[in-house]
Amino acid sequence: MIQNTTTSIMGCWDVYCACCGGPFDHMVRIAAGRGRKRKRPRQRQSESGRGGNAPGLIVAPGSGGASTSEPDPGETVGIGDGTMRGQEEEGGDDKCGYSNEDGEDYEEENDGDGVKDDDLAGYYDRDIVDEDDVAWTRDVYVIGSPADGDDEPIGPAFISGPCGYDLYGGVHLREEAGEDFNFDLYNQCYDVGTDAMHVYPFHKPCLDILAWVLTGAPDRHRLGLGGTLDRLYGALFAHPHISCALALDYGGPQHDQFWTCARGQGEVFVADPLPSLPPKSQKVPKALRDFLALQMPTGSSGNGSGDGTDPFARLPLELLRAVAELLSPRQLAALATASRAVHRALRRDRGFWRAYVRRRMPWFRELHELLGEDGGDDAVDGHTEEERGEKKSLAGLVYWADRETRAWNTDGGTMGHPRPLIGVANRRRIWGVCEQFADSYFARVGASGV
Predict the structure, then answer these.
(1) What's the pTM?
(2) Are 409 and 386 in contact (CB under 8 A)?
(3) CA–CA distance, 74 with 287 (Å, rounded to integer)
(4) Where does the record place Acidic residues bias (predicted)?
């Protein structure tokens, strides 16, 4: 499990998304991938609390938004919005130890020659995620509510954003957010024992995933319908938490004073879970289709025991399907390996796999679409199996998709190299967190009789 550790710097701290437990933009740092030339800021004497043993963080100047200049493909960068509150506007280091180099003084080195792994330990690998992949972490959105004299929420709850983080537990509205009369400048993320308005920070895609779990559609605007937002804030307010996150199992990261970018392991936590625009939105459907296209046509025989000794060969198809639906993809793959009858019955049963992924993988909408959940036909890439003259194993596709979207894989327990479905792996992880919170939310809904 990743341990997020860093030199303790008194005063300020990071806060994390209530949904995914992940970082916001100023915490995300990306270095060049292994074996690629990168520009590295010349090492300065240690002036910040974070020390001088790692390449400096390069941030864009100004506070109005992300940098408009394109970074060098090998440059070590941060995607923060530049100067943050509590940070000096020109030169020097901010009060929390984030380097504020001007980016002009570089020396070139190659990851494979002369740069130690320890030097890059606090930077994500660009070969796994780049600036486009992590841009979704830039903005903070908060859910807040007015409170009475006893600090109890009285509503109506609201969502404000985009915001920027102030480094000391509070947020401020970005210029592009415009005016928001609900928003209180005196606010604190989570509860740190002040009389400020308590707000809960989220990434925008995480709000969409939370809405997906609670309402059935990935649309954060649905959270504002029918009193949902008031009940949601009440559940957030009542849920146990610390000063930087809710007390939920976030599936990996530990929440210390500052976020540490765990190179080669933690990239999954900052991979975009809901890309909405091409070309990013096209990567997952393409990866699924490519997997199908590269499969060898399946034969008529399977693995495991022959029909004479296979107890599953005696089961009616409907009963066999009912048994299979109770199993996880990993368990079902093991059963199909052991039983030739299961292998032959299910490998190309599109109706079964449509229902199976809808129930077992509700977060994988790209796979739903590929299996024809919305289209309702047997076509893949516009051609039926008969037209292609092939019989592809849909079972193999689902097993592969399940394996690739587990945040912690069996190959060393990490996401240590590029994976085509890394963003979906993060979505799956976030979905699991939202399901934990949904239990307390729906208990509150039931208690209110709504």
Answers:
(1) 0.76
(2) no
(3) 26
(4) 101-112
